[in-house]
Amino acid sequence: ALRSMPVVDPHIPTLCLVGSPNVGKSSLVRILSTGKPEVCSYPFTTRGILMGHIVSNHERFQVTDTPGLLTRHDDDRNNIERLTLAVLSYMPIAVLYVHDLSEDCGTKVADQYITYKHIKERFGDRLWIDVVSKCDLLDRATPSRFDDAADDGVDDELRRYREFGPEDAIRVSVQSQIGTRELKQRVHHLLTSQRARIKADGGDNEEAVGEVR
Question: Which residues form the Nucleolar GTP-binding protein 1 Rossman-fold domain (predicted)?
Fold first, then answer.
């Protein structure tokens, strides 16, 4: 799957945006980097791995926009989704996981939560930032978030996720420019830490990438 990717330098810290389809990953790539992915209001707008670059404090970093992940078993994923899993599995990346609690993306919060928990458990060793996107839409109630009947039997962890997202998540609105400055600062800190991890890992990263190639 990685043979079809743009060239990624394994020695340069790379931020990988992950999440369900249409949660706002491509919009965040546009404000964080030189990448200009297509931004549309339908799932799987991102059909491959798109690359951009960040230059911050005279340091250069890479950003990848990955296809969205649906809530299903990994064996049932299509080839587009498998590209995302390939990047997470084999590339030395840090993760920016994007959540849309407004459900404007078309995926229910409960389904986003299931996918997030699966990916976090599988790739939790990565350096990680959680972002709640489209936060300007959160005041507009959606039936699945505010229907009391739908909350019957929902555990406290999911209930907290519905209201706040993961712990320490940054709330961002690209449209209203809410939280974008904090996001850029957190991303720079994350990628600086990723650079130190790459240097510490040394030849292990080269060997892993070489095996994929």
Answer: 79-136
